Amino acid sequence: MRRFSVLNLAFLMMLAAMPTISIGALNDNATLWAVGLVLLLAGFLIPIVLRFVHLVTTPKDEPDVGEEPG
Amino acid sequence: MNTGQLPIDLFHWLISLVPIAVLMILLLWRNWKGIEAGPAAMLVAAVLALLIFQAPIKTLAVAAAKGMWNAVFILYVVWAALLLYLVTLRAGAFDALRRGFMEFSRNELFLVLAIGWVFSTFFQGVAGFGAPIAVTAPLLFGIGMKPVFAILIPLIAHTFAKMFGTLGVGWLAMLRVADVPDPLRTAVEAAILLGLVNLLGGLFVTWIYGRGRALLHGLPLILIITAIHGGVQLGMMFVNQTLSMFVAGTVCLVALFPLSRWKRYAEPASSIIDRPIMQEKPPESKPAASSEPGQKAEMGLGLALFPYIFMTIIALLASGVGPINDLLRQFRVGLSFPALATGFDRIIAAAAPYSPFALFTHPGTYVMVTALVSLAVYWGKGFYKSPGAEEPSLLANLIKDSVPSSIAIASFMVMSKVMDYSGQTSVLALGLASVASVHSYAFLAGWVGILGGLLTFSSTAANILFSQLQVQAAEALPGLNISTVLAAQAAGGTVGTVIAPANIVIGTGALRIPGQEGVILRYALQWTIGTGVIIGIATVILNLF
């Protein structure tokens, strides 16, 4: 699986967490807000895990401008 | 601020400092990227909130969701600015801008100060949420500046404008949350301290551009720009505080034209030999239509500047014209959250909706509309070509470049909210206030503001968080003037945003150099510490009068 795809998935999980927690907390539905919290925490854990796990990085994953020159 | 029964002691103060320390250490000394260091520090803040600050898990969940929601306000600007950058880059507008700017003035230092300081300040007058950084960093990159410094310069140079910029939102927030006994004196003293921040920003930018020789060459220009920004803003305090920064920014922008005719700043400065922040070879845009036979070879400066002129006009119309602003502000969306009890008997009120998002008056919309209109114009004129089979589409490029910075920004905003709702932020500020004397608190008041700017990534949010605390501290220490302390809060809040990682990531996202946050932070930290000390001394002096 490509690193870029995993990061996209992580970000989508974070976005999905917002309404899930809001609806769950408003309606006192502990399962729902807990699911939202898990989604959010998992989304934030993924970039940390990726630091230590080498996934496929294609040239298309790299920014065009690159690192600071000189 | 509802502080409940928070424990104000050394143990809890040091514990509250841990998430910030983790963030700084990972970014500065372990060379982690913002996308890695942000989530790690956020998770540390959440664990400490649960274990030490007794925050219920539901409170943490709601704090995290609110933090994500706050991030959306910034991410919208980042995505829009990146789209605009990609459109202008692919159309070849940056080459045209570089050529055009060189015709306007052949003095590189003049251009650096004009774009990085004056234009970013002007833009802060009407728009916020990091838009001035996201818009001006690519322009500086376009004239040949190394990307790291193209971000650093507007980050520092325009920060003083945040208090009274965006049509005075930071000032209005302070008036709303704190008992301000003498608003005029507070505003005047804030303008004095912000004038100092402005001067120090201009001096720092000039120094990193070309060290002592650049300072000698640029000093008259720095003093003139400072006098216009600071003088007009100070004068406007007696007329209309909410428009003060906009008027000051506009006057200074107009003043650039006669200044560019001044021979000293019209021709290259031969005395400045070493320019460490400039690239030896300027970046090249992709040749859009220039290689196609039968089409225009080069874009003119007017067309290259079109996006920025268009954006300024729609931002002014949407923000500055009352009836239009009222109409556009009617469309607002937001998520609702219930009231919460936190650890140590703090209560967080219900919000329905929480911080609603006014889509049509948000700076991100100005930038997004500009990007789409510019795309249509450049396409129509033949400068923007569809990418070939080997190149990613515009949308794919946008997603690829924006997701890493988006995750980093989201993690910073969630960390900020978790620290706030668990009481860690209040413990840090109250701890400082509890051990201070009159003079030492006068010195530290600006640092409380800096802490707020660092933790919330916004001078407005810093004012909301700490203004009333500053009033309470001043009331508890006879001899401390409330207006002076609030002025220090205003100045410190703007300075603290310079080292707020989310603001740095806005720039690295816009210029597509993720992972360079630590390098920028090192420079930003030097300026922030120096400026914080000078603000502290100036506050002590102001408090004597």
Name a few traits of the molecule:
heterodimer, A: about 70 residues, mainly alpha, 2 helices, elongated, B: about 550 residues, two-stranded antiparallel sheet, 21 helices
List the helices and strands and how they pair.
The complex is a heterodimer of chains A (70) and B (545).
Chain A: H1 3-26, H2 30-52
Helix pairs in contact in A: 1-2
Chain B: H1 10-28, H2 34-51, H3 57-91, H4 93-104, H5 108-126, H6 131-142, H7 147-157, H8 165-177, H9 183-236, H10 244-261, H11 263-266, H12 301-320, H13 322-328, E1 332-337, E2 340-341, E3 347-348, E4 351-358, H14 363-380, H15 394-422, H16 424-434, H17 438-456, H18 459-476, H19 482-496, H20 501-510, H21 517-543
Antiparallel strand pairs in B: 1-4, 2-3
Helix count of chain B, per DSSP?
Answer: 21
For the largest beta-sheet of chain A, the strand count, sense and barrel status come to: none
Beta fraction of chain A = under 5%
What would you call the structural class of chain B? mainly alpha
The mean pLDDT of chain A is: 81
**What percentage of residues of chain B falls in helices of 4 or more residues?**
over 70%
* Shape call of chain B: globular
Q: Return the string of H and E elements of chain A.
A: HH
Counting structural domains of chain A, the number is 1
| Regions with little confidence, pLDDT below 50 for 5+ residues of chain A | 62-70
- Radius of gyration of chain A over all CA atoms, rounded: 16 Å
Q: What's the overall geometry of chain A?
A: elongated
| Computed CA radius of gyration of chain B, to the nearest angstrom | 23 Å
How many independent structural domains of chain B? 1
